[in-house]
Amino acid sequence: MISPNSFDARTPMNRGDANGNVLTHYAPAERVDAGELRAQLDFVANDPVIDGLMRVVGGLLAVLNEQRQVLAVNDRLLQLLGLGSAEQAFGLRLGEAVHCVHAHAMPGGCGTSEYCSTCGAAIAQVTSLAENRAVERVCAIDVAPPIAGSDHLFFRVQACPLRREGRRILLLVLQDITEEQQRALLDRTFYHDVKNTLCAVIGASEMLAMDRERSDADMADHLVEMTRRLSREIELQRCLVTARPDGLGRITTRVTVRQVLEDLERACVLHPAVRGRRLRVQPAPAEAPVLATDPTLLGRVLQNMVINALEATPDGAEARVWAERAEGAIEFCVWNDAVITAENARRIFQRNFSTKGTIGRGLGTYSMKLLGEQVLGGRVSFTSTPDAGTCFRIRLEANDVVAE
User: Fold this and answer.
1) Has this prediction a pTM greater than 0.85?
2) I want to staple 319 with a disulfide (CB 3.0 to 4.6 A). Which of 89, 336, 360, 363 is the partner?
3) Segments forming the whole domain that contains residue 97
């Protein structure tokens, strides 16, 4: 164990408004004072059971007090945090120690912002303390500055309360599951999309092979297009999994709004999410322009919007897709009648965040933003209200709209 003797009294304590109230949107904001924190650090440093746990637990381990402040960290977590000594983490909360971008959004620090109610780590800690039981959640954290060369952390978080000599502490075990998540995303998206494209390539090839004497230029062109799309899907998935769009060049071609909507309908009509629901793709407006864009990437953005909308649509109901002119630009819109809660809306475009709470989710909405804005140069947004439902949009500005 590392001695708390060098504990820095400047470690964040209670910070409140002008009236001394510590504000919070989720977890309790209060912290122990410097004297009590020193006493807790000394107790943890000299407890043989805690010392044994710190030595034998194989993952990233932290010991917290009931105010969720760090009392001890093991060497593996210390290494991940990039800290020279554990004393630098004493008194902090997890989000503050890992530099979560939301950790200082409120005076009360980690756990108190509007974003914290959807944070897996915060939920695990609060629930475990409130219900006095072990709780496990997955947690996606955006960090700044980067930790271990990454600006994003993805953990499985296990929180377990423990009582020692009348004191209650919280054991927090973190497991880095970034690679597991990436493999699950590959299984869920890449292999599915590549299989669909390969089926189209095989079908076109078989039709050509059955009639070797007749030259079918249309089928040959279709085969070439499917092969190009397969290559593009491989590039695209590498971009999404690595979150590095710089290597994915934009292949610009001219395409009509009507073609975009027709291709989208063909791509989605047989998707499992449509079963039991209706997908209504409205005709393109008569005055819709020709676009100069990358139709493969635009199609992927719109497909993700449609699939998300269908998954949120009750059986027997419908999701709608349409395009509309807007001040020299064109907007593609995808609507369903469901409502996104305010808590989820704040993180809707965060990498790996998913309302499903399972591994292998959380890439669809993230990819909308990444591809739609950083590669296509458009603007991706959404609105969601009880009266109007939810509508996702991608707006392509005037420089992407060309004359017929």
Assistant:
1) no
2) 336
3) 4-176
